[in-house]
Amino acid sequence: MTALTLSTAAAPGLRADAIVIGVAKGAKGPVVAPGAEAVDKAYDGRLAGVLETLGASGAEGEVTKLPAPAGFKAPLVVAVGLGATPEKDAEYDGEALRKAAGVAARALAGSKKAAFALPLGDSGAVGAVSEGVLLGAYAFEVYKDNGKDAKDAKKNGKAPLAEAALLGGKPRDKEHKAAIERAAAVAEELNRARDLINTPPNDLNPESFAAIATAAGKEHGIKVQVLDEKALTKGGYGGILGVGAGSAAGPRLVKLSYTHSKADKHLALVGKGITYDSGGISLKPAGHNETMKCDMSGAAAVFAAVVAAARLGLRVNITGWLALAENMPSGSATRPGDVLRMYSGKTVEVLNTDAEGRLVLADALWAASQEKPDAIVDVATLTGAMVLALGNRTFGVMANDDAFRSAIVEAAEEVGEASWPMPLPEHLRKGMDSPTADIANMGERMGGGLVAGLFLQEFVGEGITWAHLDIAGPAFNEGGPFGYTPKGGTGSAVRTLVRLAELTAVGDLG
Ligand code: BES
Ligand code: MN
Ligand code: ZN
């Protein structure tokens, strides 16, 4: 990952491949953002005009490259768009900085070192720029070596920016230091979640995912317990077993326990971890299965958040549950019409084997409930209906408690993740009535995302505050990169979960 430092160096003397500055959209053309004063001065105060001549407007996502002024050690200036200028006397918004830093870091792929001369008003800005750089520089190159030696790896793509110095950062300031350290822990784990999501399903299956979680647990002092097929059978986890029944790679339930000796609260996080979703016997048609390696994004987010919380030493107990299975058709697969006895004891008639996420989550939610945590949050690429409702960049938030749902939407907003509250209308429950079992795994087609939420709610223990994040839209970016979001696995919900853990730790949630 890109190495980050806070630097008090002056821009002209700095040895780097490039200096990144901010340019915003002013009322009368582009405006040079604070932080770039030394660069502007070297251009005799004409930098805004120079940028305008080059066609820059300050729009978000815009990159303008220009030669550095005489006397500068760095050869290149990269001006990155920040969008609208802030209201009078206000600071640049954290998300605008995060996106701009991400765009610049990606534009500088292949470079060794860049200096970031962006507006760093307070430690919040330091954190945002740091996150933007680390997340924007991300590239998934593991499979791009054409089978050659490691030294030839990356030949198809440029290596991520190796080093970034944040100019105007205060290396001795406690808050600045904490901000950069928090950003590094969160971004490193988030990028690891992206790696897991991008790893093809022939290499990432429930067993190998569990092994990765076990190794990470050892490294970060997190207790990890893995229930394999034998243990799941013994325990009666009919949902996870039913979904995994068709695959040559057996299912797993992974429990990650991070504890803090002074914790007052216990937060449980549950992630959908379908390492590949073919649909099962209700097979998905071509065009709907090419990206279904992303169906473990919820589990990846939970895993990343628990490790990040441990690295940050948050004063809260967190249990992460990864419900891992591969959904495949075969002679041993669950059929539409089969009835599963779930871990909770309820029976489920499987009408569509492609509605598998709710089945594995049901068992994990019930397992999580047995510990009576203060709150449970599950994260899942659960329904295409949620993508239709909210699009590709916004996740839906459902909950059995309105205040908790609002708190989650607010926490997401704080860290720059787009989310939206969704209801759980009771009348949709009867669509899942089954003539044979306690409930069916499908209901009305209309409002399919909410129907799935209502199904999950049936497996949450009595009296436990619970929320469900459907990240089917934002989990995987099939389009081009934007802001600090790469193509492929995005790491959706990781930052929201870490924020929730922080808020729980200080008693502001749950
Ligand atoms: N993993 C899919 C949902 C999904 C769709 C994730 C698009 C990411 C992008 C899920 O398991 C699924 O297949 N859901 C079905 C449920 C239906 C059969 C009730 C769906 O949404 O079509
Ligand atoms: Mn499915
Ligand atoms: Zn799925």
UniProtKB/TrEMBL annotation:
Cofactor stoichiometry and binding remark: Binds 2 manganese ions per subunit.
The alphabetical list of record keywords is:
Aminopeptidase, Cytoplasm, Hydrolase, Manganese, Metal-binding, Protease
| Gene3D superfamilies for the chain | Leucine Aminopeptidase, subunit E, domain 1, Zn peptidases
User: Which cofactors does the annotated protein need, by name?
Assistant: Mn(2+)
Q: What is its main location?
A: cytoplasm
Pfam families membership: Peptidase_M17 (PF00883), Peptidase_M17_N (PF02789)
Instruction: Give the location in the cell.
Output: Cytoplasm
**EC top class, as a word:** hydrolase
| Catalytic site | K284, R358
Q: What is its EC number?
A: 3.4.11.1, 3.4.11.10
Question: Where do the Cytosol aminopeptidase domain residues begin and end?
Answer: 352-359
Q: For binding Mn(2+) 1, which residues are annotated in this chain's numbering?
A: D277, D354, E356
Q: Where does Mn(2+) 2 bind?
A: K272, D277, D295, E356
Spell out the reaction equation it catalyses: Release of an N-terminal amino acid, preferentially leucine, but not glutamic or aspartic acids; Release of an N-terminal amino acid, Xaa-|-Yaa-, in which Xaa is preferably Leu, but may be other amino acids including Pro although not Arg or Lys, and Yaa may be Pro. Amino acid amides and methyl esters are also readily hydrolyzed, but rates on arylamides are exceedingly low
Q: What superkingdom does the record give?
A: Bacteria
* Example GO molecular function: aminopeptidase activity
* Family to which this protein belongs: Belongs to the peptidase M17 family.
What this protein is reported to do is described as: Presumably involved in the processing and regular turnover of intracellular proteins. Catalyzes the removal of unsubstituted N-terminal amino acids from various peptides.
Q: What is the protein name for this chain? A: Probable cytosol aminopeptidase
**Whose protein is this, by species?**
Streptomyces lanatus
Q: List the lineage, top down.
A: Bacteria, Bacillati, Actinomycetota, Actinomycetes, Kitasatosporales
